[in-house]
Design a protein that fits this description.
With about 140 residues, the protein is an alpha/beta fold. The chain contains three helices and seven strands; from the N terminus they run αββββαβαββ. The protein has a domain of about 90 residues. The radius of gyration is 29 Å and the shape is elongated. The N and C termini lie far apart (about 95 Å).
Length: about 140
């Protein structure tokens, strides 16, 4: 009499092992939590350097960025809070913000190191004519 083996039928496993998926998810979460504060969104600027920079009061502040043109014969590029504007739109934006925030606001004018002084002074003048007196120019400390 031949010996018969009893064969088991293999059932598909209905559960999914989530341990490795959760490990990867938590590692990604930790990586983003560590890296995210170091990221600064905005424009890549080369700020001028001075020996001892002064600090500006921490009221409601808005940023005007002035970047050098891509080509020598083009005008400078002006950004208000990251949005590209021309000088007339800048006047309107500043008037709108001045009306909504009153005198409790600061303006930071970030100018690229290679921007001509004339372009910087145009933006400075527009800001002053809008009735904003708290104007700062961020710089980097000398190395």
């Amino acid at each position: 009499m031949p010996i018969r083996r009893r064969q088991r039928t293999v059932q598909p496993l209905a559960a999914i092992n989530l341990t490795s998926l959760l490990d990867v998810t938590f590692m990604l979460l930790l990586a983003f939590m560590i890296v995210a504060p170091a990221l600064k969104s905005g424009l890549n600027m080369e700020l001028p350097q001075i020996a001892e920079p002064d600090t500006l009061s921490q009221q409601k502040s808005f940023t005007i960025s002035i970047k050098k043109p891509e080509e020598a014969d083009l005008p400078v590029r002006v950004y208000f809070e990251g949005k590209r504007v021309d000088l007339d739109e800048l006047r309107e934006e500043l008037a709108t913000r001045r009306a909504s925030h009153g005198s409790k606001m600061d303006i930071l004018i970030e100018a690229d190191r290679t921007v001509a002084c004339q372009d910087l002074f145009k933006v400075f003048s527009i800001t002053q004519k809008a009735g904003i007196s708290n104007i700062g120019i961020p710089v980097e400390p000398e190395k």
